[in-house]
Amino acid sequence: MTTDTVADQIRATFNALWSEDHDEPPPPLSDDTVLLETGFDSMAFAVLIAQLDDDLGVDPFAIDPDAEPPITFAEFVGFYTRLLEADQPAIPLAAAEPREDLTAPAFVDG
After folding, report:
1. 96 Cβ contact list (under 8 Å, min separation 6)
2. 34 forms bridges with which residues in the sheet?
3. Can you say whether residue 59 is alpha, beta or left, with left for phi > 0 and alpha for psi between -120 and 50 degrees?
4. What is the per-residue pLDDT across 20-40, written as a single tens digit (0 to 9) for each?
5. Rounded to two decimals, what is the model's pTM?
6. Burial of residue 106 (number of CB atoms within 10 Å: 0-12, 13-18, 19+)
7. Nearest-angstrom CA–CA distance, 36 and 73
8. Do 7 and 77 contact (CB within 8 A), yes or no?
9. What is the dihedral of CA 6, 87, 82, 63, to 10 degrees?
10. Four-point Cα dihedral 13, 44, 29, 60, nearest 10
C-alpha cells in the first residue's frame, strides 16, 4: 500500500468520524498538521485508531506499545505505511501481552 493510499484512507476515516460529532467541515490534514491541533481529543483518536485497525488490518500501537506517538499527520501516515510495507501481522489488542505498568492493583481481603 502506498503512502498516498494510506494517507487517503486515514483522511477519509478521520473526516467520517469528525462528521459524526461536528457540524463544521473537518480541518484539512496536510503533512505538517499537528495532530493535537486538529480538534480531536484522546477518545476521538482512540476511535480513529480502532477504525483504522478494522480498515487497514494493523494497529501500530498494539504491535509496538513503546513507540513514540506521532506528532504530525505525516508521521502518523508513516507509522502505518511502514507496517503495511513490512507486511507485519496485526496483533489483536486482546492478544497483546499485558504490561505490568497497566495492570490493576490486586485487592487484599481483610
Report:
1. 62, 65
2. 72
3. beta
4. 999 999 999 999 999 999 999
5. 0.74
6. exposed
7. 10
8. yes
9. 100
10. -70
